[in-house]
Design brief:
alpha+beta, Isoleucyl-tRNA Synthetase, domain 2, Ubiquitin-like (UB roll), seven-stranded mixed sheet, six-stranded mixed sheet, 30 helices, 31 strands, globular
């Protein structure tokens, strides 16, 4: 070894390097774990005996549940986790009792699919994935209360998921009281006669099955035969939200078909109005609120009955334009409508005489036409059906209905653009004033009638129009009959008049409709929470008593639901649990007074959303085996308070993609639990923040196949891989795109504190940003300069001085303190880092030892962002307590304000002088100084002054006479 190299190594012995960072970080992570540094005390424990601790304001900070992927984390995953950690650390240092922890949302399809492919039990693979992810997250120095962590697959956790399901199952929604109540109260009302039983018989005259069926019409969790999204390729049904815009499964990209199956549902529609109104008090991004409002889709209108057939059948429509009833010239039903097939079918055996050829579609009979069209419609998703297709499709049913206001017979069609999921599954078509109806009427040569007077000069003959005329402030025309006339009325007046007319005759009423549908809650999978439901020999569903919870998943050899040809719609589910006869068929005493009876278990499982609907509550009291959550603990962390009238988590950070899935479902569960008295918080999450995405460049060869990004060379203005030129686009980061960078790689090369700083410095937290490994070194150098400002790289000794800081240094320090504090509180971590960097650079350029008081406050400013190096420097500066709970620096206002500011003096809009004055100068004093300035006096040259405009401290504008 040469003397030069030896000297360099000695000189660098105490330099901050990746190796030193690794040592520092591992030591402090071990210390935090052993010390319980991040353990948040509960009000029923340590807080009760410590008045000082109890006086601290609380702060509950959460990240959206991670799913433990087998591929581990890439650097995009921890963006939000680092952000909440920085914020939580700052909140601790500003006097808050902070609860911040992280669990795992571990049920779901990916683990099951992996089990099917490899023969590994889903629990084994999931727990292995969790262990890997925990290791990666720990390395980042995240300050989580580890005592509170859990996974949704833990039986002691999903015991309470099952318990909540039973609370919902055993509840009904009281419309008068606008809240959920126990089902026993409804039964008591039926028994006493206070609430009449629908139909001719009393409650006492109904048998057990009839009673169960009746209660199923009211329960908030109920089983029903309903149209579902059936995915043969996955062997399961999917919620609407799990189907892509092109009618395929979100997982696996398989075709999805409409089918009718018996499934569990949650009556979330009962809460539609409350879900809407309570959004107003939440501190959420407006874009997310808008998505939820649109998904709930509240619209006011009226229902109207159209008589059909020779009996008492009616087609009920919901419309928001009841004023246009006179313009309804045909009707359209959804292909799934109950009047199209089965006992109630209105479809005749033969085409009516004179049926237009274009209406029949060339089919021999209405039944043939309807059957073939229904099969066609079943192959399309709801989104596809609602899209503005150029070709309008449908068939005439052979039936006619009667327009209730005009008495005219109108033909009844089925078409795929009408859905059972909205309104009544039937529409009155007013082609003159609706673009879709207009296009359909043109395609099928149907009549049109103008009933809203056009204001654009097109006239009142729709045959001459290019498209429908839609207006909400025009006058009604051609809208009179013997019973009622709307002619001459405005739209609003006409709506009110026709609604009252329909109601008076018992053939309609004003009503509110919602786009929101009840939540499909069944999955035909193994790896999910079992339903705590059994069926007796009559098929009646019974809840398991709480003493039998948790109902654990049985061990099975075959985890896979039966899958089918992805394109075969004529199939139905077979669940993995149904193949386990010993588990399915049981003899139990449910405590109903009838002893031990034979039962059959429910063989569907809950969706992967179930566990994440309430996990914020389990973080509060994770080891409580007697209650969902201790009421005092829930009240302390989640209860309503000033500025948070509905209570909830103080900060919830995650992706915007969960706007109408997890977030809506969790809000529904919270409201039910609140109504039943189990919690004090009406809403689960008070403040929501959506972080952006870390993106990466994707490189593709001439075949369009992604190539390893790390092996691509940039030269001659292009990008090359193994001698072939490749294209580059900015996209997601992921293993399949061969552009993933793991946090382990960056930690090994630079250290975790550098990774934390880089991810926070890349840009505003709520916007997406491209990853650039080459840029990481900038934050690494910041930490090296910070280290050098405190520690001598040759000796390892602290270099700070006890001398007082000069005024320039104090101004730089307190401006940084003021700015960083505000930025931290506002989640503006990129600008906070810029201000810390500016202060650190100031101290570096100043030269000489840094005053101890300045160095200590600099370390405290850095502590939330780079906690490992901050702990190390804090200890080297002579402190024995952890930096985590130290007070965050407070700025001295005297040093935050600039000593002087520049005031511009203008005459006739032209600058004549610049004055250096105090920022707090009064208007009168500033005017006096401006008029006395030599340059101003010379420019005025004795002219009089008409007006002086003073905008202290930056501007004086003089207007000569």
């Amino acid at each position: 070894m040469s003397e030069t190299n030896s000297a360099a190594e000695v000189a660098a012995a105490h330099r901050y390097t990746a190796a030193m960072a690794a040592d520092i970080e591992a030591r402090w992570q071990d210390f935090w774990d052993a010390d319980g540094t991040y353990e948040a005390p509960n009000p029923t424990g340590d807080l009760a005996g410590d008045p000082a601790l109890a006086a601290r304001p609380k702060k509950f900070i959460m990240d959206m549940f991670p799913y433990p992927s087998g591929t581990g984390l890439h650097v995009g995953h921890p963006l939000g986790y680092i952000a909440t950690d920085v914020y939580a650390r700052h909140q601790r240092m500003t006097g808050h009792n902070v609860l911040h922890t992280l669990g795992f949302d571990a049920f779901g399809l990916p683990a099951e699919q992996f089990a099917v492919q490899t023969g590994t039990h889903p629990r084994a693979s999931t727990e292995s994935n969790m262990a890997n992810m925990k290791s990666q997250l720990r390395r980042l120095g995240l300050g989580h209360d580890q005592r509170r962590s859990f996974a949704t697959i833990d039986p002691e956790y999903y015991k309470w998921t099952q318990w909540i399901f039973l609370q919902i199952f055993n509840s009904w929604y009281d419309e008068e009281g606008q809240r959920a109540r126990p089902i026993d109260e409804l039964i008591a009302r039926f028994e006493s006669g206070e609430r009449p039983v629908p139909g001719p018989r009393a409650w006492s005259e109904l048998d057990a099955t009839e009673r169960a069926n009746l209660l199923g019409e009211y329960r908030l969790a109920y089983a029903s035969d309903a149209p579902v999204n059936w995915c043969p390729g996955l062997g399961t049904v999917l919620a609407n939200e799990e189907v892509t815009a092109d009618g395929r499964s979100e997982r696996g990209n398989f075709p999805v078909f409409k089918a009718k199956l018996r499934q569990w549902n949650m009556r979330i529609t009962a809460y539609a109005d409350r879900l809407l109104s309570d959004l107003d008090a939440l501190d959420w991004p407006e874009a997310i609120k808008l998505q939820q409002r649109n998904w709930i889709g509240r619209s006011e209108g009226a229902r109207a009955d159209f008589a059909v057939g020779s009996g008492d059948d009616r087609i009920t429509v919901f419309t928001t334009r009841q004023d246009t009833l006179f313009g309804a010239t045909y009707m359209v039903l959804a292909p799934e409508h109950e009047l199209i097939s089965g006992e109630k079918s209105i479809v005749p055996d033969a085409w009516p005489a004179g049926t237009h050829e274009v209406w029949t579609g060339g089919h021999a009979t209405p039944a043939d036409a309807v059957a073939k069209y229904r099969a066609f419609a079943a192959s399309k998703s709801d989104v596809e059906r609602q899209a503005d297709a150029k070709e309008k499709t449908g068939v005439f049913t052979g039936a006619f209905a009667v327009n209730p206001v005009s008495g005219e017979r109108v033909p009844v069609f089925i078409a795929d653009y009408v859905l059972m999921g909205y309104g009544t599954g039937a529409i009155m078509a007013v082609p003159a004033h609706d673009s879709r109806d207009f296009a359909f009427a043109r395609a099928f040569e149907l009549p049109m009638r103008c009933v809203v007077e056009p204001s654009d000069g097109r006239g009142t003959d729709p045959a001459a129009w290019d498209d429908a005329f839609v207006a909400h402030d025009a006058k009604l025309v051609n809208s009179s009959s013997d019973g009622i006339s709307l002619d001459g009325l405005g739209v609003t007046e006409a709506k009110a008049k026709i609604t009252a007319w329909l109601s008076d005759r018992g053939i309609g009423e004003g009503t509110v409709n919602y786009r929101l549908r009840d939540w499909l809650f069944s999955r035909q999978r193994y790896w999910g929470e079992p339903f705590p439901i059994v069926y007796d020999e009559d098929g009646v569903a019974h809840a398991l008593p709480e003493s039998m919870l948790p109902l654990e998943l049985p061990e099975v050899d075959d985890y896979s639901p039966r899958t089918f040809d992805p394109d075969d719609a004529d199939t139905s589910p077979e669940t993995p649990l149904s193949r386990n006869a010993d588990w399915v068929n049981v003899e139990l005493d449910l405590g109903l007074g009838d002893g031990v009876r034979k039962y059959r278990r429910e063989t569907n499982t809950m969706p992967n959303w179930a566990g994440s609907c309430w996990y914020e509550l389990r973080y509060l009291d994770p080891h409580n085996s007697e209650k969902l959550v201790d009421p005092a603990i829930e009240q302390y962390w989640m209860g309503p308070r000033e500025g948070q009238p509905h209570g909830g988590v103080d900060l919830y950070v995650g992706g915007a993609e969960h706007a109408v899935l997890h977030l809506l479902y969790a809000r529904f569960w919270s409201k039910v639990l609140f109504d039943l008295g189990h919690i004090s918080s009406v809403e689960p999450f008070h403040k929501l923040y959506n972080q952006g995405m870390i993106q990466a460049f994707v490189y593709r060869d001439s075949r369009g196949i992604a190539v390893p990004a790390a092996d691509v060379e940039e030269r001659d203005g292009g990008y090359w891989y193994q001698g072939e030129k490749v294209s580059r686009v900015l996209g997601k980061m992921g293993k399949s795109l061969k552009n993933a960078v793991t946090p382990d790689e960056i930690c090994a090369e630079f250290g975790a504190d550098t990774l934390r700083l880089y991810e926070m410095a890349m840009g505003p937290l709520d916007v997406s940003r491209p990853w650039d490994t080459r840029a990481v070194v900038g934050q690494y150098r910041l930490l090296q300069r910070l280290w050098r400002n405190v520690v001598d790289e040759q000796t390892g000794k602290v270099t700070v001085t006890d001398a007082e800081a000069d005024e320039d240094t104090l101004r730089a320090l307190h401006k940084a303190i003021d700015g960083v504090g505000h930025d931290m509180a506002g989640l503006r971590f990129n600008t906070a880092i810029a201000k810390v960097t500016e202060l650190n650079n100031f101290l570096t350029k100043a030269g000489g030892p840094v005053p101890r008081t300045v160095a200590e406050q600099l370390v405290l400013l850095m502590a939330p962002l780079a906690p490992h190096i901050a702990e190390e420097l804090w200890r080297k500066l002579g402190h024995t307590a952890s930096v985590v709970h130290q007070d965050f620096p407070v700025a001295d206002p005297a040093y935050v304000v600039d000593e002087t500011v520049t005031c511009v003096v203008q005459i006739k809009g032209k600058v004549k002088a610049r004055l250096e004055i105090s920022p707090s100068i009064a208007d009168e004093e500033l005017e006096r100084l401006a008029l006395a300035d030599e340059a101003v006096v010379a420019a005025l040259a004795g002219a009089g002054i008409r007006k002086v405009i003073v905008r202290a401290p930056k501007l004086v504008n003089i207007v000569p006479a």
